[in-house]
Amino acid sequence: MTTTSIPMNAPPQTRHGSESETSPEEVLALARTLRWEIGGDFHQTLMETIYTDAARIADRAVTRPGEKPRFDLDRTIDGLVTSRRWGIPIMILMFTAVFWITITGANIPSQMLSNLLIGTIYPALQQAAAAIGMPWWLSGFLIDGMYLATAWVVSVMLPPMAIFFPLFTLLEDFGYLPRVAFNLDNIYKKSGAHGKQSLSMMMGFGCNAAGIVSTRIIDSPRERLIAILTNNFALCNGRWPTQILLATIFIGALAPVYMAGLISALAVVGIAMLGIVISFLVSGMLSRSLLKGEVSTFSLELPPFRPPRVLQTIYTSFIDRTLYVLWRAVVFAAPAGAVIWLVSNITINGTSAAQYIINVLDPIGLLFGLNGVILLAYVVAIPANEIVIPTILMLTVMTLGATNLGAGAGVMFETESNAATKAILTAGGWTVLTAISVMLFSLLHNPCSTTIYTIYKETGSKKWATVSTLLPLAMGFAVTFVVAQVWRLVFGAG
C-alpha cells in the first residue's frame, strides 16, 4: 500500500520508513487518531463555512425585489471599458494619453542625455584618442562609428521607453489590457480568426517574438498559424521610438505649439490602430483562402481590477522592459555603427561603397515615398528595429558629406534637440511624406531576425517563416506606394 502524505507528528517508523515498513493496520490506526483530533463538529463547521461564502457571494451578486441596486466599482468600470459603444473610444483615449505623456515628458531628459553623451563625452574621447596617438581609422571605427551610434540610441530611446513602458505596465497591472482583448474578440471572430489572437496581439505590442510564442494558447493549428502570420502588425518595443520621434518632429510640427504633443500622440495611436485593422483584414484574407476552416470559440475570463502597485511596477518595467530593450538596441547599434562607418569610408574611385548602394536604391525608394538611405538602413537593421533611425541618420550624414555638421563620413551627428534631428533629415531630402512613409513602412515591413527565427522554431516550417517575412514586406511596399502616389497627386511632389 502506497502512502502519499504522512503527518509530521506520526511515529518515526511511519514517517521515515519505506513502503514495506508501513502496515495497513498502522495506517488505519493513524486515521482514527487524526479523526478525533479534528473534532466531532468538523462536518458542521465545513458546511457553515460553505454556506457563509455562498451567502456573501449572493449578497454581492443578487439584487432582490424592492432593493436598490448595489454599487459595484468593478462592474461599473467594466460597464464602460467593455461596452459596445464606449469600449473602443475609451481604448483609443487611454493610449492617446499614454503617448502624449511619453512624447511631452521625454524631450528634456533626452536633450540632457544627448548633451552628456555626445556633447561632452564624445569630444573627450576624441581628445583622448589623439593624445595617445590612436590611428585615425581606429578612432573613427571605435568612436565615430560604434560609440556615437550607441550614444544616440541611448539618448533618444531611453527617455521615451522609461516613460512609456511603466505606463503600459500600469494598465496591464490594473487589469485593463484583458478588457482590450475582450473588446477585440468579436472582431477577430468575424475576420475568421480565433478570439485568443487578441491576447497574442497584446503581447506583440511588447515584443513580436514573445507574441509569436504566446500563440501557443490557441489550440487550433490553423488559427494559431493565422495569429503567427499577423502578429508583426502589432508595433513592438523596437518600433515605438521610431514612431514617436517621427510623429514629434514632423507631424506634431504641423500643428500649433500648444497642440503639437496631442497631434503627435494621435498620429502614433493612428499607426497602432492601423496595424490592428490590417491584422483583421489579413486574418480574414488568410481564413478565406490559404487557411480555410471553421472558427472555434473560447471563454475569456476577465481578471478583477487591482490597484496598481506603482513603485513595484515602475521598477519591474524599467528592469524587465526598458533596460532589456535598451540593451538589445545597444548590442546591435554598436556593430551597425561600425559597419556603416566602414562602408562609408571604404571608397571605390573616390566614392564610398555605401554611396554606390544608395545611388542604386534611390530611384526605387522614391516610388514609395522613401529614399535609398532608408532602404539601406532597413537592410542593415534587420537584426533589430531599434537601430533603424540611428542607421538612417548616420547614412544621411555620410551622403551629405557632413560639410555643415563638423563630422566625417559615417559619423553620427551631434543632436541636442529634436529640431537638430529634423534639420539633418530635412537636409537629406525628407518631407512630411517621407516621415509618413517611414512610419507606415515601420509598421508593415518584415519582422526582425529574432522574430523570424522564433516563427521558424514555432511552426517548424521554412515555408511559413518565409511567408511571415515577405507578406508584411510586400504590404509595406504596396501601402507606401499608394500613399506616395496619392500624396503627390493631391499635394504635388513631396
Shape: elongated
Cross-sheet strand order for the largest sheet:
1-2
Fraction of residues in helix:
over 70%
Summarize the helix and strand pattern as letters: HHHHHHHHHHHHHEEHHHHHHH
**Compute the gyration radius: what is it?**
29 Å
Largest sheet: 2 strands, antiparallel
Structural class: mainly alpha
* Amino-to-carboxy terminus distance: 84 Å
On the 0 to 100 scale, the average pLDDT is 80
Strand content: under 5%
The stretches of 5 or more residues where confidence is low (pLDDT under 50) are 1-19, 402-416
According to DSSP, the number of beta strands is 2
What is the overall number of helices? 20
Question: How would you summarize what this structure contains?
Answer:
This protein is mainly α and 494 residues long.
